[in-house]
Amino acid sequence: MITNKIKQFYRLFGQEEGSALRTFQRYFPEPYTLNEITHDTAEDFASHNEVANQALLIGVEIGKAVAFQKRPILLNAKYSTKMGIFAQKKIGHLPQEQLCLALLDAQLNVIGWETVFVGTVSHVQASPREIFQRVLKANALGFMIAHNHPSGYVMPSKADIAFSQRLATLGQQMDMADCKNHPNTACF
Fold first, then answer.
1. Is the pLDDT of residue 183 over 50?
2. Closest by alpha carbon to 107, among 179, 175, 57?
3. Strand pairing partners for 143?
4. How far apart are CA 136 and CA 134, in angstroms?
5. Mean pLDDT score of the chain
6. Are the CB atoms for 84 and 110 separated by under 8 Å?
7. Helix H segments across 35-127?
8. Is the whole model's pTM more than 0.70, yes or no?
9. Band of residue 80 on the pLDDT scale cut at 50, 70, 90
10. Residue environment code for 121-142, b if the CB has 16+ CB neighbours within 10 A, otherwise e
11. What is the DSSP letter of 118?
12. Cβ-count burial of 101 within 10 angstroms (0-12 exposed, 13-18 middle, 19+ buried)?
């Protein structure tokens, strides 16, 4: 796969890809060697094609930096009170119902907060598919959902409870984190 990406890169620069690829492979015979680039190797490689090879090395450095980035921890959701205050600040004042997703790591840290659905003043239509897509894409171990009631009535409706139970069942079927060991949390 990396060979095709390197060819594509040189094509974009209007370079003859065969020759450029051979030079690349002479300096970086295996993909892992891109993680071990020395200053001298980078200079020698760049000297064969100043603009394109320097751009490629910058792209590699960007890729390495991105690969090591982690999602920031927004708060720890071990206790539902903290999570409730956080959710209230985020969506409590909004004029229409919104269903939000808190993505959790193994220590119940909230590593993401996303608005998944926006509804009307009295209803939000939600689907488990979009929720689980986001959880899996973020590689989260678990999640919590929250939604507001612009009416000010904060008790969950029967539909809210049924939807939460459906998510819990689906989460268990997918071997998502079970928070029964954390009685003060409401995660699925």
1. no
2. 179
3. 103
4. 5
5. 89
6. no
7. 39-47, 50-67, 80-91
8. no
9. confident
10. eeebebeeeebbebbeebebbb
11. E
12. buried
Full strand arrangement of the beta sheet holding 142-147: 75-76, 109-118, 98-104, 142-147
Cα–Cα dist 8/122, whole Å:
51
CA angle 140, 143, 148 (to 5 degrees): 140
What's the length of the chain? 188
User: Is-contact 83 144, C-beta < 8 A?
Assistant: yes
Whole-angstrom distance, CA of residue 179 vs CA of residue 164: 14
How many Cβ atoms are within 10 Å of 165's Cβ, its own excluded? Answer: 11
Q: Which helix (H) or strand (E) holds 112?
A: strand 109-118
Write out pLDDT tens, residues 8-58: 999 999 988 899 999 999 999 998 899 899 999 999 999 999 999 999 999
